[in-house]
Design a protein that fits this description.
The protein is α/β, with parallel strands linked by helices. It has eight helices and seven strands, in the order βαβαβαβαβαβαααβ. Keywords: Oxidoreductase.
């Protein structure tokens, strides 16, 4: 494992990026996680990748040349904590992107499944936090990915809305408990990723067009936008305990 400050190999460094630093990406085989790993490598940093899908993880590893990979379900908090603690040396940043939202109306909700969706996601983040206290260097970052969409009440949003409300409080409290490790939350709106495609199915193109015509930025937010924010939060040592929205102004216009 490369120590902080050592110069990594691979792509030429991008000014302001995490050159020579090691970033663990939990959920790094697609979408925001994969794009963040790409940008870390382009900036001259090293990555450790985990994902649930071993085949997709192998494709990501073939592209990026990570220090190591591990295929497991991050929603198993004990497994995630063991993985992080067993890393062979200190790391600079941990990014947790794993997990997907639950959009189930109350009448259709399996209560046990709803409890797992909520409690399991919190347990995953707490496991990452407890391990990061021991494995992330002082001034490094534990970074969570959340969302903004469920801030507006709607049918089927009870579980996801409760989790959306909980994550900023979790982030702020962990920033105190883990200091001098920094803890931040990225709250994204719609992001054009494989996860969005799987959730929307044949409604994806219509949703893209709607956003292009209504968002103040005039385009759809992509994984590269979120990844760029993630790298900024990793490298700006003054930022901790806060939630950073990135949705192209989606909250200010009708859904």
């Amino acid at each position: 494992m490369m120590a902080s400050g050592e110069q990594g190999g691979g792509a030429s460094a991008v000014p302001g990026g995490p050159a020579g630093q090691t970033v663990v990406v939990v959920g790094g085989s697609s979408g925001i996680g994969l794009e963040t790993a790409r940008q870390v490598r382009a900036a001259g940093g090293e990555v450790v990748l985990t994902a649930r899908d071993a085949e997709r993880l192998k494709r990501a590893a073939d592209e990026l040349g990570p220090l190591s990979t591990a295929a497991f379900d991050a929603m198993d908090p004990d497994r995630l904590e063991r993985f992080l603690l067993d890393l062979p040396g200190p790391v600079d940043h941990v990014l947790v992107t794993a997990g997907s939202p639950s959009y189930t109306p109350l009448d259709d909700l399996d209560l046990a499944a709803g409890g797992r969706d909520f409690g399991g996601r919190l347990a995953m983040l707490l496991a990452a936090a407890r391990a990061s206290r021991k494995k992330v260097r002082a001034g490094g970052t534990l970074l969570f990915i959340g969302g903004t969409g469920a801030r507006r009440p709607a049918l089927g949003m009870a579980v996801t809305g409760a989790l959306t409300a909980a994550l900023p409080a979790l982030t702020a409290n962990l920033a105190l408990e883990l200091a001098p490790v920094r803890v931040n939350l990225i709250a994204a709106g719609f992001v054009d990723t494989p996860l969005s495609a799987s959730l929307l199915g044949d409604r994806l193109d219509a949703r893209r067009e709607q956003l292009r015509s209504t968002l103040p930025i005039g385009r759809v937010v992509g994984a590269q936008d979120v990844a760029a924010l993630a790298l900024h939060l990793m490298t700006n040592g003054a930022l901790t305990g806060a939630t950073y929205d990135i949705d192209g102004g989606q909250q200010f216009v009708a859904h």
